[in-house]
Amino acid sequence: MGPKEKLPAHRVRTVILPAFRKVGLVPLFQQWSSSRPLWICLSRLGSLHLIVRGPRFLGEGSVIWGNYVRIHPYPARARRNRTRSAPIPGGIQRIVNLTLENASSFTALLELPATQAVELLHLSQSEEGTQAPPSGDIFQGIGDDHKPYLPSFDGNLTFPSNRALIEAAAKFSVFAAGENSPETSSVPSNSSANLGKVKSEPAETDSNPNSSQPLVPDPTVENKTQRSAKRKEQRKRAKGLRRRARTRALKKLRKLPYRHSELVAARREKINARMKLLQELVPGCSKVRLCLLDYAAFNNGFVPVTFSQKRCFCGKISGTALVLDEIINHVQSLQRQVEFLSMRLAAVNPRIDFNLDSLFATEGGPLVDSNFPSMASLSTVSRNPIQWNREQYQQQCPFDALHQPFWGREEDNHTFHFSRELPFES
Amino acid sequence: MESESQQRIYSTKLVEALRHVRQNSLPTSKSPSGREIRHAADRVLAVAAKGRTRWSRAILASRLSLRLANSRKHRKAKPGKVTGCSRLKRPEKKRSLPAVQKKVKVLGRLVPGCRKVSFPNLLEEATDYIAALEMQVRAMMRSPSSSPVRRSIGSAPALTCKALA
């Protein structure tokens, strides 16, 4: 920390700092110049942001925040924030100009309480791509005391163009992403040294994907598979980010896609494919060709089905509602069958405790010679009880308990009845 | 949809489960009710599904919660709250009528654990569930039948449903 110097600090505190405080930024480094001040701020989460003043959207990584452009380390978030701008009290620009002229310094800012520090960058569009006046000019206005604190930057701190700014932002993302919160505490002290280091390393493994990856893929060019693959990629990358950035990036991915019609078509295909599978499973609809479902019914709102009934070639009426009817009936019948069979097994099992294995394995077991008509009775089931001779069956087979036409609530009564009567065989 | 090997696996597991049920019910010397057997069979089915599907997870979860609830019930029998039917007090509003939506809800209720599932996922779950149920029926029918009357599983329920209807 350098010698404390009196800024027009009150101005900074009352106007500029609150504005940054709203966004939760803490300035770490400030590079003053009359034309392009560059501020590097630390957010509450530990991500680094470049703040540049500019009137409009500078590039992928930049965010317009009032009059100031924040070069965001996470471009995905930046794009979403584009429309949002923190209310900056009017006159900041004027004040910044004044302070610039007064050559406030980094160290002076550092003195300020961390939550109040604000750095504003000033980057005019006209100066894009042009080499700004050498940094030495900036510091002329600054007292000599501060020069020792910014010597390493003299050579490096050329005024960045947009791309350079974005690259710097990307590097800062590396810087921020690579080092977690324990690092952030040391950032204020290291920032000056690290900045030079970071800037001198143009090729970072992470910065390249960050800066070079097109985040808005052209939907017309790619087909769906590519898009889904790209989205998976994005998702993977989103997962690599930190918590807040991750949730935002993922939310954004979820809210995609790029065109509503494509989304509708995708859902349509999904639903159609599954209905086809179901129709193959459910016997009632197998012959009926899958007619076009009414997609509006499955979109956000449900629509009455009357217009979805169509006649297919085999003369049967089919439609969404009917197919669903069939499916429901089938599921219900299967469940009833399971209940019935479990009832039967419950009645059967007292007799055949230990032959179950053989039963299930050989599918016949020791009961091959019994001549009870197993499930044939089921096919002719009716509400009337089957006429059969109990004694005869008792002798021959232990399974006459199964011969009851029980559907519905008659089951329990019948099983009780017959299980009492049947003699136990050891 | 289900292969023969899966059928065999399910059958063996079903036998095991039934034997367990037998042993559990023997001390009380009452034959296990159909309901218990059915629950056991459903559980085995859910296990055989390996938890990839939603309904299987719901079946397994419901068993656990049921057991907890039962154990709590045995510990203390709380007097039930007498609140009365709220529907009587407030006139019931007519819900939205689209038939498809109603049917979707019914289907959601039938498939365990799929009440608030989106429609395409519900269809998928229903597909798996129907296949699993068919396998279950086949396995249970196979067991104590002497001459296995192999019919298509679809025809019998159709007949019986029509008989009932």
From TrEMBL, chain A:
Keywords assigned: Nucleus, Transcription, Transcription regulation
Basic residues composition-biased segments: 227-244
Biased composition range(s): Low complexity: 179-192
Biased composition (Polar residues): 205-214
Sequence ranges assigned to domain BHLH in this UniProt record: 255-334
Signal peptide: none
GO MF: DNA-binding transcription factor activity; protein dimerization activity
Stretches for region Disordered: 179-244
Subcellular location: Nucleus
Annotated coiled-coil segments of the chain: none
Domain of life: Eukaryota
Gene Ontology terms: cellular component: nucleus
Protein's UniProt name: Transcription factor bHLH60
UniProtKB/TrEMBL annotation, chain B:
Chief place of localization: nucleus
Swiss-Prot/TrEMBL keywords: Nucleus, Transcription, Transcription regulation
InterPro entries membership: bHLH_AtIBH1-like, bHLH_dom, HLH_DNA-bd_sf, IBH1-like, IBH1_N
Subcellular location: Nucleus
Positions of the BHLH domain: 84-133
GO BP term (any one): regulation of DNA-templated transcription
Molecular function terms from GO: protein dimerization activity; transcription cis-regulatory region binding
GO cellular component terms given for this protein: nucleus
Pfam families from the UniProt entry: IBH1_N
Signal peptide: none
Protein name stated in the entry: BHLH domain-containing protein
Source organism of the structure: Morella rubra (Chinese bayberry)
